[in-house]
Design a protein that fits this description.
This protein is an alpha/beta fold. The protein has 16 helices and 20 strands. Strand 18, helix 14 and strand 19 form a beta-alpha-beta unit. The radius of gyration is 23 Å and the shape is globular. The protein starts with 7 loop residues before the first strand and ends with a helix. 48% of the residues are buried.
């Protein structure tokens, strides 16, 4: 009998994760109350996705009455723990869970989990590509499943998975915050200020991220960034084998990946292997070198072949909305980096280019500091075009323009479409136009993907 047979579950949040988990629970015998703060008329299309299921919908508010007789409350990623309904569930002793927790508890195959403040989607996708290269030769009859916070909740694939398959899972701080189970390979790429509007303090944010390690066993493997001081503080949490990654070779013979003279190396079990020359890598920027070194370390932990690692890196050309080249127009190359929802991500994007930069930045602030990004803008950005709710915050951080000092001009726009038109008026041959907002998309779009798609559309419409 299914674990969920006869259980009554409240699912808070009718976003992608909530919809996928609701379907899974109902199909396994649970009674589901799906609760969302949005009014019923705003959920017509969403409700259609689950129209074939017997689900009770409660919309427009979060009434505590729906907790009566409930066995568990599940949260979509965007649902904060300080929501009164969640607080009441905790007071009543009702356990909390989410799609990632339930997936990890039931997954029949090994799971690789990847988290970090930046780069986790690129790294997750790259590890998935390397894994497919390995499985094509070594396990042609089995599947590699890639998902989680990357956009595909793995709970929707759970019933199709086999024991010898592999799941590669991106995990956000929102998901990890309430999780009490860890994957057998757990990677933390970096820790920089992010989502402080949700977590309030860096300590809370780091604590949430660390949950990816805390339930590991001595038989499990942790992959950690040895160049990141905040990640290094989590080394004490490691219970099993540890593999680190960083730019310079480690001081000892520890298992690690590193960069040296234009090549990436893997050091494991006292042996050193050259993996690839960096001029064969399709991704720009030092931050992507870290992502690739992390992927190599994860792949070594999973015992993928060196040939599969090499083939996967060579074949990987990145993913949409992450330093994605859109087109050349006006003599400039236009890039979509809509994934940059924090200033640190915009910094990494700017540092990927030596060409003159026209930067489009803005969106909604996450209570994060803008001073480091502002300092880099003053060093490297020729023209700054601001949009959205964060315009005044960024403008104040950058300060006024000064003749002959960057940025030479600052434009303020209401939204992204107007910002694209403003950029088109600034570009000169040899420029890079970089859409790397540094803020979230929620002031104008559903998510960063919609924002990136619309940016791409408006750039392609330039004539």
């Amino acid at each position: 009998m299914s674990r969920w047979e006869g259980k009554q579950i409240v699912m808070i949040g009718a976003a992608r994760q909530g919809l996928a988990l609701s379907r899974y629970l109902v199909e396994h015998g649970a009674t589901v109350i799906l609760n969302d703060h949005r009014p019923e008329e705003a959920l017509v299309e969403v409700r259609q996705e689950l129209a074939d299921l017997d689900i009770t919908w409660v919309t427009g508010d979060h009434p505590v009455e729906i907790l009566a007789g409930v066995d568990m409350v599940c949260l979509s990623g965007g649902v904060p723990l300080d929501l009164p309904l969640v607080q009441e569930a905790k007071r009543l002793g009702i356990p909390l869970s989410n799609d990632s927790q339930i997936f990890l508890e039931a997954a029949p195959c090994p799971v690789i989990g990847i988290t970090g403040s930046a780069g986790k989607t690129t790294t997750t996708a790259l590890v998935g590509e390397i894994a497919r290269q390995h499985f094509a030769v070594r396990k042609p009859n089995h599947n590699v499943w890639v998902g989680g916070n990357i956009g595909n909740p793995l709970i929707q694939n759970l019933d199709k998975m086999q024991e010898d398959d592999l799941a590669v899972m991106e995990l956000s701080s929102f998901q990890l915050e309430i999780m009490t189970v860890s994957p057998y390979i757990a990677a933390i790429l970096n820790l920089t200020p992010n989502h402080l509007d949700r977590h309030k303090t860096m300590s809370n944010y780091i604590s949430a991220k660390s949950h990816i390690l805390t339930q590991q066993t001595p038989d499990d493997i942790a992959v950690l960034n040895r160049d990141d001081p905040l990640v290094r503080e989590l080394f004490a949490e490691v219970k099993g084998r540890q593999i680190t990654f960083g730019l310079n070779p480690p001081f000892n013979k520890q298992d690690a990946t590193y960069y040296k003279r234009g090549k990436l190396y893997l050091q494991a079990s006292g042996q050193v292997a050259k993996i690839i020359k960096t001029d064969l890598v399709n991704l720009r920027g030092t931050h992507n070198l870290y992502n690739i070194m992390a992927a190599i370390a994860i792949s070594a932990a999973a015992t993928f072949s060196l040939q599969a690692i090499y083939n996967g890196i060579v074949a990987f050309e990145g993913i949409p909305h992450r330093l994605e080249f859109i087109r050349s127009w006006g003599g400039a190359d236009w890039y979509n980096d809509s994934i940059a929802t924090a200033p640190e991500r915009a910094i990494a994007a700017i540092e990927s280019f030596d060409e003159p930069v026209v930067l489009l930045a803005g969106g909604r602030d996450k209570d994060l500091p803008w001073d480091k990004l502002a300092a880099l803008i003053r060093q490297k950005v020729d023209h700054l075009i601001l949009f959205g709710e964060a315009v005044d915050l960024i403008r104040d951080a950058v300060g006024e323009t000064t003749p002959e000092l960057r940025p030479f001009t600052i434009d303020q726009c209401v939204g992204v479409e107007e910002a694209v038109r403003a950029a088109a008026e600034k570009v000169e041959p040899g420029d890079v136009v970089l859409f790397s907002p540094g803020g979230t998309s929620f002031d104008e779009f559903i998510d960063f993907e919609e924002r990136g798609r619309r940016f791409r559309q408006w750039v392609m419409e330039l004539t």
